Amino acid sequence: MKLTNLMWAALPVLLVSSCTNKSKDASEDVPKRTVFFDKAGMDTTVKPGDNFFLYANGKWMKDTKIPPSQTGWGSFYTLDDDNVKDLHKILEDVSSKDNTAGSVEQKVGDMYKSGIDTAAMDKLGYEPVKPLLAKINAVKNYKELMSLSADLYKDGDGFLLGFYISPDDKISTKNAAHFDQVGLNLPNRDYYFKTDSASKKIRAEYVKYIAKLFTLTGVDTATASKKAAGILKLETAIAQSHLTPTELRDPVKNYNKFAVADFQKQVPDIDLADAFKRMELKTDTILVGQPAYFKALDGLLKTQPIDVWKDKVTFGALSDASSSLSKDFRDANFNFYNKLLSGQKQQKDRWKLAVNAVDGGLGELLGQLYVEKYFTPEAKKRMLELVNNLQSAYKDRIEKLDWMSPETKKRALEKLAAFTKKIGYPDKWKKYDDVEISKDAYYANLQSIARHNYKEMIKKEGKPVDKTEWGMTPPTVNAYYNPAFNEVVFPAGILQFPFFDKDADDAINYGAIGAVIGHEMTHGFDDQGRQYDKDGNLKDWWITTDADKFKTRVQVMINQYNQFTVLNDLHVNGSLTQGENLADNGGLAIAYQAFKSTPEGKSDTKIDGFTPDQRFFLSFAQVWRLKNSDETMRMRISVDPHSPEMYRVNGPVSNTPAWYKAFNIQPGDKMYRPDAERVKVW
């Protein structure tokens, strides 16, 4: 499912000494939080107009140490950590009981127990994955390789075809078969071609990681190194066919519908009929995101030695399964992907990984237990009020746009009014009746879940889209906009302090969760979302002159963000991050307008020594305070469509007139932008 995520990694936590721990049963009488703003975390030696992010968060940034088991720290991280602890309590409780076979409690409890049983994993070594490796080893030529790839999709182990079922972008009510570029085990194509020292080191360590996994299966060191070098060379050839992260943002460019017979002519050596039969796919029409990849694959299958292909697939199988194999595999995977690429110094406690595995695999079973214990109807009601207020403010802003024609405005307003709003958790829970879970077979449990997921997905092909489905589990600390569903979704996990507290004043809530709500709504009208109509169809509903004006205004923002740097010399990619930057700028503007309609927004009463407007902007800045490891930040600049948090704050406020007034920002201040240079889109 194509989701526009608010944040792929995590957000910042407000470290306030008087905060009460929210990890209590929702039915208990939890003492009210009375402090919602961290004055101690500010650095008032920094002028607000020179660096607002550091003014609001500077002392916190200086004093905060990233825990060794994390890649960063801040609100998203800390709230996620709290949620994991809450889920842990639930799982420890249910796993200690004698539950009825097949019940929600039995499945999530036994899945958790299997996930923490590292002694059983260590005893088995890589035995669980040996049957898969034997199938790969039996392959004699590239045709058999592709047949195996198709067969393995049913078990969650398919490769090279990038297959999934989701709505047809131009017929949003109907599910379709999609095929996207895959085949790389580094974060994206750029990692294979960059020539800076950090990138060269990553490739060198990647080769060592590949070789390590082979040696763990008994391959001698020299042979393992040769295999690793061959795999890197093959993946580099594959990477040449991949679109860049920025190119992947264009929904029109990545929408290519083919009759199967017609696409077969473009990839003559990939037997689509045989593959689709093995995958139980009956369609005669497919959507191919990046045809160039499949054309390149068709050539590489024939020209590259089959033994190298088998080595690549073997490595992929071992790497993918490493979290469920013995300690030496787990450590090797951690050392490369977590430690080297992300800067995580030590592994998380196994119970945390097990909790996340249950949430990821049986999320709507565990989610039922979570919301029953930790999510109140009052929170859902208050959140819906906020969403409705933001929607009204957005409507008013669209109506008053001076650059958009009445015809395009009319369609924009129709789309805004058609938003579906999902809050907390699904109205209808998924069933996992065919999933078999035992307390002593972690790898087998993961396989059972994977088979279930494939069965559930393949049944959707060609069928009407079920728009009640969710793309995130209830405890997730995140939010998203889905263009195909034209919906904004806020899981229960994020509807807690520091993002939201029903007892907080409006400046705090509107500056925090209000900006998040506005962010997701603006995704419906960002560079990607604006190309989908009110029904979720990829369809141009803009007057040409309005579209041109939109692009001109967005270019101002791209230019602004291109100037931002991290780690001394790495520039933010304004084109890659334009959708999230639009959402940040629009979200802040919408949230502020909605806030001004509240009694507090209309008053001048100070709290904590700050005016309502100042508290609104400081709340926005503090909810985004986050500290990343240098390694994670380096990776984010390359792959993440979100700007670093300092610029998620400083960029939007520097384009907001009310911020200038609230903090008396003047020409000469480092963040001052003349009115003519400010981003003015939504």
Question: What are the defining features of this structure?
Answer:
682 residues, alpha+beta, 4-stranded mixed beta sheet, 12 strands, 7% strand
Count of alpha and pi helical runs = 25
Strand percent estimate: 5-15%
DSSP strand count: 12
Biggest sheet details: 4 strands, mixed
- Binned, the helix content reads 40-55%
In whole angstroms, how far apart are the ends?
Answer: 26 Å
Which whole number gives the mean pLDDT?
94
User: Strand order across the biggest sheet?
Assistant: 1-8-9-7
Q: Which structural class matches the secondary elements?
A: alpha+beta
Gross morphology: globular
Low-confidence stretches: 1-29
